[in-house]
Amino acid sequence: MVHPLSCFPRDDRQATTIFRLAFAGFVVCLLFGQTGRAQGPGVSRGTVAGRTNGETLKVATWNLEWFYDANPRDNESELAKIHSAPNAAAFEFRLSQFAVAIAALQPDILALQEVENQLVLDQLAERLKKSHGQNYHVVFVQGRDSATEQDVGLLVSARFEKPKGERIETIEPQRYRNRDRYQVPSKHLVARIDTHRQQGVGPLLVVTTHLKAGRNPSDEQQRIFQSRVLNEFATLEQSKGWQLMILGDLNSNDTFLETRVDGAVGVLTGRDSPGDDDDFLDLHHWLPAQGRRTHVSGRELDRMAVSPRLTKGPTLQLQGVLVSVPSIQPWLTSPTAKDTENRLSDHYPVMATFHIQRPPRQ
Asked: Does some domain include residue 198?
């Protein structure tokens, strides 16, 4: 894979000029496309009948495609060093534009994949605060992908208390040791957001993950084992009263309409079992059939699976789902670079909006 900014000029002054031109175009496109003020062909939206105003909870996921800073000295693997930003200006370019895109979406909970470490997440949160007035907690736990050193993290709105980040094998150290059935994802994070008393949302357990990449049968088998861990963990936590959101890049080749019962997405959402206590709803269901792609290749890699109760109350009611604007990509390309070599990310953010159902006052 070519780094998304590999054609970015190595000279910082040249880079700054291109940065400003591309940035200006990007802002225009975002404001009149992605935010929905003038819905364009690049916006894919799905809505749910019912109440569409009042207080909301917006939850999103986005793979940032090798969001690494320009310092390879803190990387050990050669792959991670190769994909570090080529210089400080190139990293600044992506940092600032990711902040613009996220600020336009205004998510309350944002799951991020392909981030280097907590440092780049801290910088992103700081930029959102200083440049856009949006405050987020950073939730991060070091993952175990030593080959790429890619990781996942969460940005959680500061209107909630900062949740603690955990890993499944820490919560359930004995449960998933059978290697013929399970593989704990090297890149995942669990966060409990108990906002029942303060915000009327109810106890949420958010899992962000990035499953095994690759199109070989062995890769899919690993994804199935990883999905089984996520499904069984989520089912157990749901039985304890938590409402689950599983967000991330599943790397599955299945489309929503052709989801195999025994494939990774099918196992994650409980389709492979006869009962319904382990079922989770794939929010791609609420997207139009022609608007479900989340990757430049046209694949539906990025998914959101949630507890059924989260789509119909009593604390949250799904309002709609959107995949943001593929048409922003040309604005992110310098005049001499190929789109695939100088894009912001090869994935598109996916976001679901829920209406908060507050209990009646006594």
From this structure: yes
